[in-house]
Write a structure and sequence with these properties.
Blueprint (H helix, E strand, L loop, with lengths): L12 H12 L3 H29 L7 H14 L5 E3 L8 E3 L4 H18 L8 E3 L9 E3 L17 H23 L4 E3 L2 H21 L5 H6 L5 H7 L5 H30 L1 H11 L2 H28 L3 E3 L4 E2 L3 E2 L18 E2 L2 H4 L3 H18 L36 H26 L11 E2 L2 H36 L12 E2 L5 E7 L2 E7 L8 E5 L1
Antiparallel strand pairs: 1-2, 1-5, 3-4, 6-7, 6-10, 8-9, 11-12, 12-13, 13-14
Helix pairs in contact: 2-3, 2-4, 2-5, 3-5, 4-5, 4-6, 5-6, 9-11, 9-13, 9-14, 11-14, 13-14, 13-15, 14-15
Length: 537
Amino acid sequence: MTGVIQTTAHRAPLSLLRTRWRDRSPGLAAGFLGGVVAAGLGLAACAVLVMVLWVSAPYPDSGPGGALHVAAALWVLSHGAELVRADTLSGGSAPVGVTPLLLLLLPVWLLHRAARDATESGDDVGLVVGAGAGAKGGFGARGGEGGALPDTGPPPVSARNAWAGVVLGYLAVAAPVGLYAAGGALRPSWWAVVWLPLVTMGAAGAGMWTAFGRPGGPVGRALRVLPRSLRELVVEPDARLGAATRAAGAGAAVLVGGGALLLAMSLVWHGVAARDAFLQLTEGWAGHFAVLLLCLALVPNAAVWAAAYALGPGFVLGTGHVVDPLASAPAPLLPPFPLLAAVPDAGPGTPLHWMAGAVPLAAGAVVGWFTARAATADAAAPAAGAVGTAGTAGVGSETGPAGGEAVGAWSWWRTVVAAVLAAVLCACLVALLAALAGGPLGGASLARFGPVWWQAGGATLAWVGVVAVPVAVGARVWPVRERSVAAEAPEPEPATRGGEAADGGGRRWERMPLPSMRRWRRRGGTGSERVWRWRWW
C-alpha cells in the first residue's frame, strides 16, 4: 500500500525497567510492603498500650525511653519468644517465658492477612487453583478467560515471591526492634532469633495457603516421604486426613472451652480471694486497668492450664509444686494475682475435683462423632437406580452386595484408623498449646510454670483415643443401620390406615410408621401418581 509508513513505538527506559522488574519478581514488592505494614501495626499497638499506661501511671519508674524499650520487648514476647530480665535483686538474670496467648493472636493474624492480601496484585488479577485455572487445571490468573492473562494489568502473583516478600518485610522490621529491645531491662533471649522467623514463616505460609483456596497439593507432596502403604492408610482414597484434622480441631476446642468453663467456675467459687488479690496488687485506676488487661491477655493461658488439669497431669506452679485433680500443692510464695486465686486449695483432691474428667470425655466423644459424620457423609445420598417409578422420588437400598455396608460409607477399619489419627493430631495440638501457655518466670523454683507439654499431649492421646474409637464406630453403624432398615422395608399396602390427612385436590396423605422415620404416601388417582415422601423425626 502506498502512502503507509510503518512506525515502531519506543518505550521509555523507566517504563521498561519497571516492566522487567515486575516480570522478574511479581508480588515481591507488594509482599515486602505488606510485611512491613503488618509488623508496624503490631508494634504500634504495643507501643500505644504501653505509652498510655506509662502516661497514666502516677509514679513511673522510668522515662519515655524505658517505656519504648518495654513496648519493643512486649512485641517480641507476643511472638512467643522468651525474654530475659537483667535487673534482678540478686544481680543475675531471670528468664520470662510465659507468652500471653491473646497477644500471640495479633501478629499471627496480621501476618495471615498480609500474606493473603499479597496475592491480590490489583485489577482483579491473582492466582486461582482449580479446574478453571488454565489448560492444565493448575494455577492460573484471575481476570482472564480460560486462565489467560488479560490484555492489561500486572502478571499473576507468584506464591513463592509473595510469601518471601511478606517474610522479608516483616523480619526487616523485627531485626532492628529486637536490637533496640536488647538495650532495655527486658531483653530478647537467643531463642528469639530462631523462634520469631519460624512464627513469621508459618503464619505467612498459612495466609498464602488460604489465599489459594487451601489446595491439597502441598500436603500431598509433603506426605510423599511416607511409605505407600502408610500413605494410603492415612490419606487415600477418601480424604481421611482432612476429616481427622477437623475432628482434632473440634476436640481441642472442646478441651480448651471446657478448661475455660472450669476456670470460670473456680473463679466464682474463689470470688472473694480473686477480688482481694485484684485490689491488693496495685493502687489507682491506672494500675487496676493494667492488671485487668494482663488478666484478660492471660485468660487463654489459664484455660489451657485448666484443660491440662482436667486431663490429669495438671500444671506446675514452680518446680516441684504440681496441681492436679488428685492433689494440689501450689507454691507458698506466689504473688497475689486474680487468676491464681482460681487454683484449688492445697490438699488431696475430692470427688468435686475428679468431676473435671468430664471435659476430656466430652472431647473424645466430639472427636468420635466428627469422625463418624465424615465416615457416613458419602452414604447420605440415595444409591443410583433406587428412584421410584414414573417421575416419583424414592429412597432405595444403600446396602452393598453383602447387604451389610452402605454405599459410600467407610468400613469399620477405616473409621478406626481415622479416629486414631484424629486423636494423634488432637494430642499434638494440645501439646503445642501447652508449650506456648507455660514457661519460666525466673530461676530456681520459678523456672517452670504451667503444664508440661509432653504430659498434656500424652494424656490427650489416651483420653481421646480411648473414647473416640468406640464412639466413632458406634455412631457410624447406627445411621447406616437405620438407612438399611428403611430401604429394606416392604412397600405398604394401599389400604386405608390411621393418620390420614385431607389434601386440597381430593387426595389424602397417609402416614406409614417406620423406625425413626415417618413415611407419607399420597392417595388417589392412578397407581402411577403415587409419590413417596420421607420425613425424619
